[in-house]
């Protein structure tokens, strides 16, 4: 057994089709010359893994189009000023998700709290899901603190039963509600996707909405939704969709093959950067579930934005006036994390270096400015004499995570 199997209808032919499309991309063809054919899915073991850049190279050449309706473009991660794109047809493949995952139904009043626009997928993905449930939807988007009171008033008056957002957005909302004694007794379901669950929500949600439980989606803009979980599953454990074939390889890195008929992104053994292992889920559902073990590619999530630490430090470190740069993430029990770029200035550093670096990082890190809109102090550039080193090992890491009590 090579670890590749799927009961999805037409799986092998769909994988073959993706392989043929990838072979037609001039810049990728060489990688696939040794892969003669896929007699069965087991032969995927001979197919080289893809990284995000490979998918972007393929998409730039293939320019995929949906067979029906519109083709939608979304930003697919990356720490760069120019967005890398992923594609999906109208509906964003959510019919399959709806078959497997039912946190809301026709009687729900559902608030979609993912930020909208700017190529972000979450808002539209969950809107497509809501269409299938027959619920009543409220397209809220992301809101600022000064708007919270008005909106909570609306939620209570209308009897909102479900709300969804990124864990960072939910932390801000539920943290505020808890602090201010706001109660949402009719809330049943909290939908989340975009970053790991945060344990603070396990304390804040019951204080605000004692009847609410969390329901998660896991995926990426390259693969779209990979898996779902329910309140009875651990928050890091996922039940894959039938069309998603996962394989746990060396160093526990997971690669995914997307077997959607006519899928637009050519996802064939694509490594998202997540590591994982197969487990039996505590919810008791049949079949194995995928438990995530964190990332292995240097990308950290800051308020739902993926930051490529190596790329950012290399970029900032090449600036005149910078002798060493380091990123520090401060985590708090009761509020959102903050990010600091620690910079040891070189002799030629000018006085405006921190301001220019601040603007540069905001301008070149996709969506960072957007998640800081209501809290500009969440990212700072700080001049320091020495980088922070581990006193025991003497090592100086590019990223330090500090838990502030
Ligand atoms: Zn489960």
Automatic annotation (TrEMBL):
Domain AMP-dependent synthetase/ligase span(s) in chain numbering: 61-237
InterPro entries, per the entry: AMP-dep_synth/lig_dom, ANL_N_sf
Name by which UniProt lists this protein: AMP-dependent synthetase/ligase domain-containing protein
Source species of the chain: Actinorhabdospora filicis
